[in-house]
Amino acid sequence: MAVSYVQKKIGNGIMFSGIYDKKFKSDFVSVRFITPLDEKISPRLSLLSMILGTSNKFIKSRTKLNEELIGLYDSLMSVFSYPVGDYQISGLSVRYIGDDYTINNENISAKATRILLDCIFNPHIEDGKFPQKYFDLRKQELIDNIKSEINDRRAYAVFRANQTVYKDEPASVSVNGSVEEAESITQSELFETYNKMLSESYIDISVGGGKPCPEIDEMIAKAFEQIERPTDININFTCPSPIKQKTVEVSEKNDVNQCKMIMAFKTESEDFYAQKLMCALLGGTPFSKLFANVREKLSLCYYCSSTIAECKKVMFIDSGIEKHNVEKAKKEILKQLEAISDGDFSDEMLENTKKALYNGFRNNYDSIAALNSWYFIQRVRGGEASPDDINEIIENISKERVVQAAKSFELDMVYLMEPEV
Description:
Cytochrome Bc1 Complex, Chain A, domain 1, 15 helices
């Protein structure tokens, strides 16, 4: 593929990356502020991103901000806050059409980027604080998001399982916090968090689109030069979760019609790509062992899939089950993992799983937003591999490495959310 990827350090703890492919007609700028997860600070950062994306010193309302962006060929600003391992990723991004595709090659890239930078560096401040109206509105939005997460029982079960499997680790913290934590945030705390975010967080800036734009790169570099960051800031996303001496089992009652069971397995193995392939073989495709046997053949689950939290070296198996089938399902899930450990899978199934991963990885080439996410994950891993590079790695994984990956996982936790009656 004709993708160009470059990265460079432009300041103390500030990384700049560019992703380009001439087939793309839209461009983007994304600014990620990366901080350790913290039960007090994380909700403030989530709220802060929402407020910064509402207005700035020169465009003082969300309505006017949206009007400005719509006038730039329907440009779009987004805010985000999500966890990766023990860290929180929060910030803003803007997407806009490339200048080559505007009428008379109008330069909208600089205008859209300037709006984004003003939201970050020239926020809307009144009497030394964020406007009370927007502070109250965005705080209520945060509270509503928290309540929505709780009402999504499957997602809430995953969150509760995380709190158990990552007990006493930063990864157990929710980026949005609790309703009580959100309600308690004050204006002074939020403004203090804003200043610390600029000076103390690790900053990851990505730009991309059809071709490099030196003007945009220079605008961004000059904007971030003004931040006082006296010391370099480094992060290490890889922080494996310690394996418990004894499997922990937790059962909680909630307003659900079916049980939500989440099993967590931990490993000390460094062979991540063999683990990823094994996880897909186990429960990551429509023809995986969990889908074919636990769900389809035995009808023990409404859903049953496996995923890996790479930074923490944890594999999760997430399932929805009738209460009377819980123990049967648990036993069968362990049986399917054991089958892979015993090499009980065909070469054809292994090759089909590789092809499924291969196709999934290559889909990232279809979208500049997907490539932005892809290369950020590569930076999390400490590299810059392309989808094709990873496909080559996956292609060369032997059956024996998959078997060893399966053997390396130990059952760490079983979380069950069950009906109240």
